[in-house]
Design a protein that fits this description.
Number of domains: 1
Distance between the termini: 56 Å
Number of helices: 2
Largest sheet: 2 strands, parallel
Strand content: 15-25%
Length: 101
């Protein structure tokens, strides 16, 4: 039993795979090369929908597929300053990072 659709009638260039997370993400490590999946968080998807609605623009699934990875939280450049914590006679220093734009 099948769907009745012949494989030759399927345009695979128009199939886009999204993995939607609500509480966890795929943001550790580096992006896998050649991966044809867009990993997106629920808040990120809602943010994009609201932005497009405010701009009163129409967008396609292909637009989502192209823009969401570029705006992923993992791509954010976060600068952290060094922090010091004192516990009794001891001081713990947590180093910052040098992410400069």
């Amino acid at each position: 039993m099948g769907s009745g659709i012949k494989e030759k009638d399927i345009d695979k260039s128009k199939i886009f795979l999204f993995v939607l997370g609500r509480n966890h993400g795929h943001y550790s490590g580096t992006q896998l090369k050649g991966e044809k999946v867009v990993w997106v968080q629920w808040f990120q998807l809602l943010q994009y929908f609201l932005m497009m609605k405010m701009m009163q623009e129409k967008f396609t699934i292909k637009d989502l597929y192209d823009v969401l990875p570029k705006n992923a939280p993992a791509n954010e450049n976060v600068k952290r300053e060094p922090q010091e914590y004192s516990i009794g006679p001891y001081t713990i220093v947590v180093e910052g990072n040098d992410n400069e734009e």
